[in-house]
Each structure stands twice: as structure tokens, then as C-alpha cells.
Design a protein that fits this description.
With about 425 residues, the protein is of the alpha/beta class. It contains 14 helices and 17 strands. The chain has a seven-stranded mixed sheet with strand order 4-10-9-8-7-5-6, sandwiched between helices. A four-stranded antiparallel sheet has the order 13-14-17-16, with helices on one face. It has a two-stranded antiparallel sheet with strand order 1-2.
Length: about 425
């Protein structure tokens, strides 16, 4: 990851691009949106790109010879190239499949590759912090193929325990699939070390980048991931669009995940052959407006600069950690240091239920998430049923974290 500590964001200019930030939650209660790890808000350039598609060239891609379909096809194809370039995939669109979200991207790998390649002698290695989309998916593939699912331990601070990784990743490991940034602990995982262990064992190296691509520069070729998954709606893009980067040779070798229109080259009643990459993996009418919207989102994020966004996230996280430490009985999960984290902080506050905290803070306009964040087994390990999570984006400010603090103190008083 490159880091230019001097890069900074113009928060006011960024805020002006996000119309939702203008709204109040109640009279005199402006929105303080701190639920960005779930979904980010949408900026004008993305709204404009999708609006323009629907207003002027809304047509099915790759299916018409008329002008509208041609324009839609070119815009949709170009969006693949733009997103590929944003994550350093030099193969362009041929290495970048549009899916529905990170979950579908991981299912694509697990089913198209996993069901075909894995057997009872194989081991699948994931970490204890995985989101359900990278846990249940491989758990079910293991159940169907007879492979064994092995879980990488975490250190008390929430890092993947590399000594344990060196112990369990070995000759029987067929796939190592881990998240880049944890959506619960915030931990940035050491992909270099884990990737080295996977490659030394000739294992497939899969990365869940849902919480990384939105907040830091990501270069899939430097990471040397075989597959890398992420979602549009967490990076200023629309819902309904996600991505799977894959190394070309693997994408060429694998059989498709979904069958139907668009993904075929020729069809007879007996058999079929497959379209070129990436369309081989994009069966049916695709999410054209969403793909074009995601293209606009990466252009917008690149115009701010991912180094600048990463710095801003780190500064806000450091400030949040400092302020949260003022509250008696509040426990933060994950690393103490902001530079070892993505821009999110999960915590518990004495024995006040996370849902109560989120409901009361909402009265102050503060949107945060409460629950198990789709990491139920991780919460079991932490010994809590639920946590409350604040997560930041390029438009958030220190003042908004102050409002969160005020709301948390009010919650504490109410339960005192
Ligand atoms: N985490 C959160 O609030 P989808 O839902 O497919 O776009 O993303 C799934 C996913 C996969 N991996 C990680 C690390 C994630 O954080 C998520 C989504 C949201 O934490 C919704 S549960």
C-alpha cells in the first residue's frame, strides 16, 4: 500500500457532493452518518451518471444494434475497465466481473472453483474474523465436498495470529480466504505474509476486500491475490453491484457460476460454449445502471485520492479511539492503534444493549450499527452477543464524533 501522509481531503467540498448529508433526522437534528461500513452515502456524480443512463440511453447491453444499446454497452464495458484500473488490475475488463455484491463474488469463487476442485483430502483456511459471506460460503462448500474448514486464530488485539497461520497452512491447504479489513475489529490484515504462506502451499489465495477498497489504495497485483471481492455500495457506488477480480488464467479455466443468456458463445439443444471474459460470468441482463454508477464512483474517489481518504479515515479513527476512551465502562474491540485499523470502531458500553445504544443515539441524529455485523462466531469468541459500531468515510468530521460522544453520554445517563 502506498502512503503519502501529506495527502488530505477537502471535507467541506466532499460533503457538498452528498445530498443526503443535508437532511435532518428530526427538527434541528442534522444527520450524523456513521454507518459507512454497512453502506456509504451516494455523491452527485454517481446519481448523475445513473440518471443520465435512465434518461437518455436506458437499453439492454450487448443485445441491440441500435444506438441506445450501443451506448449502454460501451458505458457498461468502460465501467469494468475503470474499476479494474482503480484496483490495479492491468488485464482490464477481462479480469473484472460485475456481480451483485461481495457475497455473490465470494460465492462465485466458492462454487465455480471450490465445488469443482475440492475433495476430502483438502483443507480450506479462513480466519476467525470472517464475515458470514466468507465463512458460511466455504463452510457449505466444505460440507458438500468433504473438505475440512480450518480457522486461523486471532491475537488478543484482533490480528490474525501469524504463528498459527504458519502452523496450519501447509501441504493439505487448497485455499486460503481471508478478509483484508475486518468489519468488526477494524484490523488491517497482513496480506503479504498470509499470501506468501498460501503460495508456498500452492493454495488459492482469495481476499474479501469489502472494507478495504472503499478506504485505502488497493493494488490486487501487488497483493498477488488469485481472487479479490468487494461491493459498490460501500464505496460511494450504488447497491446491486459488486466485483470479483480474478487472475485471467483461473477465470479462463473455471466453468461458469450461472448459466443463461449473455454468457454463451454458441448453444445447441445438446451443449453450449462460453462467451469471452468477463461476460462468461455475467449471465442474464446485467445491472447496467449500477455498473455505470460504480464507474462514476471510482472516478469520483480517484479524484479525491485514495491516499487522502486513507489518511482521513486514520485521523478520524484515532480521534474516535481517543474520545471513546473517556467513557467509563466502554470497551473497544480490535487494535489500539489507528494505523492498524480501517475506519471503524466497535464497542460495548457496560451492560447497555447495543440496540438500545443505537436507538438512543438515533435521537441525536447519529446513525450507527448495532448487532453482530454478520460475524456471529467472532462475537461468540469476544464473549458478547452484540457490539455497537461507528464507521467513517471521507465526508465525516471530528465534530460528528463529538456528537456521537454526546449521544453516548446521554445513553449512559439514561441507564444509570
Ligand atoms: N458488511 C457491515 O455492516 P455485501 O453485503 O455482499 O455487500 O458485503 C458482504 C461483506 C463481506 N465482507 C465484509 C468484510 C463485509 O463487511 C461485508 C458487509 C456490512 O459490516 C453488512 S453485514
Amino acid at each position: 500500500m502506498s502512503a503519502h501522509p501529506s495527502a488530505s481531503v477537502d471535507v467541506e467540498a466532499i460533503r457538498a457532493a452528498f445530498p443526503a448529508l443535508e437532511r435532518d433526522i428530526a427538527p434541528d437534528t442534522p444527520l450524523v452518518y456513521l454507518d459507512n461500513a454497512a453502506t456509504t452515502l451516494t455523491p452527485e456524480p454517481v446519481l448523475d451518471a445513473m440518471d443520465e443512463y435512465y434518461r437518455s440511453y436506458n437499453a439492454n447491453v450487448h443485445r441491440g444494434l441500435h444506438t441506445l444499446s450501443q451506448e449502454a454497452s460501451v458505458a457498461y464495458e468502460d465501467a469494468h475497465d475503470d474499476v479494474a484500473s482503480f484496483i490495479g488490475a492491468s488485464g482490464g475488463r477481462e479480469e473484472l466481473i460485475f456481480t451483485k455484491n461481495t457475497t455473490e463474488s465470494l460465492n462465485l469463487v466458492a462454487q465455480a472453483w471450490g465445488l469443482a476442485e475440492l475433495g476430502p483430502e483438502d483443507e480450506i483456511v479462513i480466519s476467525a474474523a470472517e464475515h458470514h459471506s466468507n465463512l458460511v460460503t466455504w463452510q457449505q462448500v466444505a460440507a458438500r465436498t468433504g473438505a475440512t474448514l480450518r480457522i486461523l486464530d486471532l491475537t488478543p488485539e484482533g490480528h490474525i495470529d501469524l504463528a498459527h497461520a504458519a502452523e496450519i497452512i501447509g501441504p493439505n491447504t487448497a485455499v486460503v480466504s481471508v478478509l483484508h479489513v475486518s468489519n468488526t475489529l477494524g484490523t488491517i490484515n497482513p496480506l503479504d505474509a498470509i499470501g506468501d504462506l498460501a503460495r508456498a502451499s500452492d493454495a488459492l489465495f482469495v481476499v474479501d476486500g469489502a472494507q478495504a477498497v472503499p478506504i485505502m489504495p488497493v493494488d490486487v497485483e501487488a497483493i498477488d491475490a488469485d481472487f479479490y471481492a468487494f461491493s459498490g455500495h460501500k464505496m460511494a457506488g450504488p447497491t446491486g453491484i459488486g466485483c470479483l477480480y480474478g487472475k485471467r488464467a483461473l477465470l479462463e479455466d473455471m466453468e461458469p457460476f450461472l448459466f443463461g443468456g449473455e454468457m454463451i458463445r454458441t448453444v445447441s439443444y445438446e451443449t453450449a460454449s462460453w462467451n469471452d471474459l468477463p461476460w462468461k460470468y455475467e449471465a442474464g441482463t446485467p445491472p447496467s445502471a449500477e455498473g455505470i454508477g460504480l464507474g462514476a464512483a471510482v472516478e469520483y474517489l480517484a479524484s479525491i485520492g485514495m491516499d487522502a481518504i486513507a489518511n482521513h479515515e486514520r485521523e478520524l479513527t484515532a480521534y474516535a479511539l481517543e474520545r471513546l476512551a473517556e467513557i467509563d465502562g466502554l470497551v473497544v474491540y480490535g487494535p489500539d492503534r489507528a494505523d492498524e485499523r480501517g475506519g471503524l470502531v466497535s464497542f460495548t458500553m457496560a451492560d447497555i444493549h447495543a440496540h438500545d445504544i443505537a436507538e438512543i443515539t438515533n435521537d441525536y441524529g447519529v446513525a450507527i450499527r448495532a448487532g453482530h455485523h454478520c460475524t456471529q462466531p467472532l462475537h461468540d469468541r469476544l464473549g458478547v452477543a452484540a457490539t455497537t459500531r461507528a464507521s467513517f468515510y471521507a465526508y465525516n468530521t471530528r465534530q460528528e464524533i463529538d456528537v456521537l460522544l454526546e449521544a453516548l453520554r446521554a445513553t449512559q445517563q439514561l441507564f444509570a
